[in-house]
Amino acid sequence: MKAKKLLTLALPVMLLAGCTLETYGLTQSEYRQVDKEFKADEMVEHMKKMHYSDEEIERQLRGALANINSEKEESKDEVEIEVSESEVSESNDDNIEGFLSDSYFTDLTDGVIELSPNGKELVGYWGIYSYNRFSLGLDMKKDGSYTIYESRDTKDHKKNYIKGKWTYDSDTKKLNLAIDKYVQDGKEEDKDTLNSSIEYTIQSFKNDVFQMEDVKENILKAKKVK
To answer: Tell me, what's a Pfam family for it (predicted)?
Structure first.
């Protein structure tokens, strides 16, 4: 179940394995930090029972993450200069102005699906966004293979990734991601613990952005990077 849980955390709606868990705007790495120190899953479950909104849950998780980071900083001998959140926002393409808003996305796509029967337009490197933040990198190749990265840091790409084959059914608008290999922290996980494939419904595709939905009605938006 460990690998299944990690897959779910890594891909809140991209590669669900077994049960569905959201990372509520945190990256996989951030969520794992909170889970390790504060049992994030239990935190989320408790907040849901208290009828917290997704935004409130994210704030609580980020508060826990900030506490963890603060303790780490105190244990260091060297003082590091922290980049303010506003500076990150200005320099980080996670927050490209306008793209992540629902109205802007709708204007770009108009709810139409401009995909060829073979889905060739899906080929490319995509930035996947969840809760208005960069969540994943999805590299879909012409030969039908794909690789998913949880970080844009190329140094991390060799240690944390998922590989497999993708197919698109134009009749049903389904994107299928078959899982062949999952590497976490440089170690390949047992394939028997993974789902064989995950399926998504393409809801719109136009102007190099698209939206898809999983069986749990979770939504992801994607923007082509290259």
So the answer is: DUF3994
Are 187 and 214 in a shared domain?
Answer: yes
Residue 36 CA from chain centroid, whole number: 19
Answer whether 126's CB lies under 8 Å from 223's CB: yes
CA 175 to chain centroid, in Å, comes to 16
Reading the chain (226 residues) residue by residue, the pLDDT tens digits are: 444 433 443 443 344 344 345 677 888 778 888 888 778 888 888 788 777 788 888 888 888 888 777 666 655 544 443 433 343 334 344 444 334 455 556 666 667 899 999 999 999 998 887 655 666 788 999 999 999 887 767 777 888 888 999 999 999 999 999 989 888 888 888 777 677 888 889 999 988 888 888 877 777 888 888 7
CATH number, domain at 157? 2.40.128.280
Same domain, 144 and 194: yes
